[in-house]
Amino acid sequence: MAADSLLSGLLDIRAAAVPFLVAAVAFYFLVEQLSYHRKKGPLPGPPLVVPFLGSVAPMIRDPTAFWDAQAARAKRSGAGLAADFLVGRFIVFIRDSELSQRVFANVRPDAFHLIGHPFGKKLFGDHNLIYMFGEEHKDLRRRIAPNFSPRALSTYAALQQRVILAHLRRWLDADCEGGAFPIRVPCRDMNLETSQTVFAGPYLSEEARRRFAEDYNLFNVGLMAMPVDLPGFAFRRARQGVARLVRTLGECARESKARMRAGGEPECLVDFWMQDTLREIEEAAAAGRPPPAHTDDEEIGGFVFDFLFAAQDASTSSLCWAVSALDSHPEVLARVRAEVAAAWSPESGEPITAEKIQGMRYTQAVAREVVRHRPPATLVPHIAGEAFQLTEWYTVPKGAIVFPSVYESSFQGFPDAEAFDPERFFCESRREDVAFKRNFLAFGAGPHQCLGQRYALNHLVLFMALFVSVVDFRRERTPGCDDPVYMPTIVPKDGCAVHLKQRCAKFPSF
């Protein structure tokens, strides 16, 4: 009898709990919907959102379609803005260039915080340069700037060319087997080796490079995964990979300090950085002051990782789109080949010098148009640290994630913006880089504008110059092959498949 009574009591409790749980879920759903609509205000957006998850499933399933839908909403409404909900966070998509500029110009503690990824602090760690503000941020950028001086860029150019040519040789050997050769992954591998060589130079052993590549791949996968920070999930593996990468790069900084202290000549980015850092450390010691901020080895390793992340996938995207554009526009390809041939020959046995790179004005215009026409990092997420009045009629609520769309800005203002037209940056009578500067946001704007944009454009120019000189290529065109997909930056849907064969009589070697 006692057992029957206990069972009966448990069943009564369970029966009573069911309507309570249903009521609690319904209440949570109602509160979340009301909160979403209060924050959304007059903005276009879905009338109802999935509890907590919001639109994260369609975003992960098809990022291109998801962000295209946001842009279409913002455009149809005429507001230049659209709202949605992702994993418990209210988001605002910004299509209008001037509103994007307002966000970029107001990165400060009481306005917007650049985050680089919706869950960037968890993924990158707090060491990241993009999370800094004010004088601390300005001071660090001042100390980083010499890493991209003309002298430094000239040093990097020779390293870049050796790596590019080594990989082009492998591509040609691989294509000898016949069939189209998708270059996205090979470009990514080439760029990772380029970044390792340019940024950390002689301080990475072959084994360290192999582990580095494995960890960076884990990081890339985690960028596009559900943000579940638990063992066994891609996001957790990405976090662990970043920690190992930062430690490795911190060790490179330590070794560079020792070599620069012994009077070595700079051979890579970390050398240029440590050369000036050591001088500042010694000046502080002589004056009886503590070492300057941000000179710790592992902290520097974190900043070097920031550069590597910025250079890696964005550059992969641009190289793929450059090859596709050159194939689609034979007149542009012919002009690039002629300009490069007038300055450099594959048979010369010498790398292209910095002076010759600067003289390739048309090829530079092509590089800028590639970046405008297909900006690799299409969105630059920020979080509102405080409520911010973005327009006369809309205030971004505190905690909202805003997504200024660099991609949408690239197609505003520019005449015939959908056309791939390097003349817009080459012809003196047009100067669209000046006239529509506020719409050219591929490298950001404001206090966090990309420090390495000259390096990035130089890399694209060098790749195109070498590629068109040593390779004959033909794009394998299939329906939708050039549709942009997120990997995590945008790339052609088919991975930019091409047929390759050697063009020059003697493959360059220097």
UniProtKB/TrEMBL annotation:
It catalyses: 5-dehydroepisterol + NADPH + O2 + H(+) = ergosta-5,7,22,24(28)-tetraen-3beta-ol + NADP(+) + 2 H2O. The keyword Endoplasmic reticulum does not apply. InterPro entries: Cyt_P450, Cyt_P450_CS, Cyt_P450_E_grp-IV, Cyt_P450_sf. GO terms for molecular function: C-22 sterol desaturase (NADPH) activity; metal ion binding; monooxygenase activity. Its EC number is 1.14.19.41. The chain crosses the membrane at residues 13-31. PROSITE patterns: CYTOCHROME_P450 (PS00086). Its cofactor is heme. It is an enzyme of class 1 (oxidoreductase). The keyword Phosphoprotein does not apply. Keywords: Heme, Iron, Membrane, Metal-binding, Monooxygenase, Oxidoreductase, Transmembrane, Transmembrane helix. It comes from the Eukaryota. Heme binds at C450. Belongs to the cytochrome P450 family. This is sterol 22-desaturase.
